[in-house]
């Protein structure tokens, strides 16, 4: 019996290891497919609305995809150009950074005990930060350039969406087919609700952050508002990163004054209210995920697929939990995934 259990554990480890290798190798195909799957869920309600208005399905799909592709690509180009201009202008803050570091070191020298400035602060190099920013923006534009592949997947997903119930009815017995179709419909509704609410919350965070930065006259406020919107899809880590980046920008611009402190406090209060009160109320307690599981998912998918994997990690985890909740034999896993 002990040998049988050891064999099963060994097989599970081997399967997981092989699955990780397959996911790593298949990234060029699986990543666009998953993005396409999420996009298809997001635009399905609009497609259903157009079909109810007697618009031919093929024409409705093409119209929605062309509009979505054009908006995403133009928006991406706008953000890339803004980010490139920001990276070109950022070195002018170098003197401000050096001055602030000198003030910090001088203040530390007057303390009764010796404190050394951390290496990461003392070796802060604006040029390196600029190069890193340009590299990130270049990767973002490259990803946008691959949107055509994503939208090819979306076309086939949306085209075959209505055929699934008929296929299930043909493949299974009547009672079983009704049960499976009802379960799939429930999963689709919950996934659409999750993506809609998450996008609405992220958009609200981005607009409010941009508004706060504009109110205080922070440079590149719209760019940091967009970063807040995008990073909100990464729970906790994303909102903290967006707040710190905006706070650093205000610190570089206004120096040692109370303005960066007020900006940072307002952003933290905004993120706290939306993240801890508004989002759980709109999302529903059933979709709350274990923080440890979220952290592990971010690390795993970030290692596997990079930044794109981190953005997909939590939505993918939420979809898996929704599926588990709707399958009676797997419901216990959904409970274990909750807070």
UniProtKB/TrEMBL annotation:
Which residue windows are transmembrane per the record? 7-23, 29-51, 58-80, 132-158, 202-227, 233-252, 259-278, 298-324
Provide the primary localization. membrane
Question: Where is it located?
Answer: Membrane
Q: Which GO terms describe its biological process?
A: transmembrane transport
Q: What InterPro entries would the database entry show?
A: AI-2E-like
Keyword entries, A-Z? Membrane, Transmembrane, Transmembrane helix
Per the record's keyword annotation, is Transmembrane included, yes or no?
Answer: yes
Topology in membrane = Multi-pass membrane protein
Keyword presence, Signal = no
Q: Which GO terms describe its cellular component?
A: membrane
Pfam families for this protein: AI-2E_transport
Report the superkingdom from the record.
Answer: Bacteria
Report the family membership.
Answer: Belongs to the autoinducer-2 exporter (AI-2E) (TC 2.A.86) family.
Descriptive protein name? Transport protein
Organism expressing this protein natively: Candidatus Saccharicenans subterraneus
């Amino acid at each position: 019996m002990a040998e049988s259990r050891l064999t099963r554990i060994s097989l599970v480890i081997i399967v997981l290891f092989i699955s990780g290798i397959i996911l790593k190798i298949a990234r060029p195909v699986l990543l666009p497919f998953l993005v396409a799957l999420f996009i298809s869920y997001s635009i399905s309600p609009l497609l259903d609305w157009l079909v109810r208005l007697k618009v031919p399905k093929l024409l409705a799909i093409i119209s929605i995809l062309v509009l979505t592709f054009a908006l995403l690509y133009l928006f991406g180009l706008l953000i890339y150009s803004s980010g490139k201009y920001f990276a070109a202008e950022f070195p002018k803050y170098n003197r401000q950074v050096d001055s602030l570091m000198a003030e910090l070191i001088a203040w530390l020298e007057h303390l009764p005990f010796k404190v050394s400035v951390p290496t990461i602060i003392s070796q802060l190099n604006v040029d390196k930060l600029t190069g890193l920013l340009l590299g990130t923006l270049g990767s973002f534009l490259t990803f946008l350039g691959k949107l055509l592949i994503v939208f090819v997947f979306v076309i086939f997903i949306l085209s075959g969406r209505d055929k699934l119930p008929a296929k299930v009815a043909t493949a299974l017995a009547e009672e079983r087919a009704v049960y499976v179709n009802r379960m799939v419909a429930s999963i689709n509704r919950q996934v659409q609700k999750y993506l809609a609410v998450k996008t609405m919350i992220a958009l609200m965070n981005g607009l409010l952050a941009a508004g706060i930065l504009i109110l205080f006259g922070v440079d590149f406020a719209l760019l940091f508002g967009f970063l807040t919107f995008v990073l909100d899809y990464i729970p906790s880590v994303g909102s903290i990163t967006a707040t710190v980046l905006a706070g650093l920008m205000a610190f570089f611009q206004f120096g040692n004054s109370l303005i960066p402190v007020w900006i940072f406090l307002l952003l933290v209060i905004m993120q706290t209210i939306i993240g801890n009160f508004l989002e759980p109320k709109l999302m529903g307690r059933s979709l709350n995920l274990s923080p440890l599981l979220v952290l592990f998912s971010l690390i795993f998918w970030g290692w596997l697929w990079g930044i794109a994997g981190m953005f997909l990690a939590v939505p993918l985890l939420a979809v898996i939990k929704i599926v588990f909740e709707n399958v009676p034999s797997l419901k216990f896993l959904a409970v274990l995934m909750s807070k």
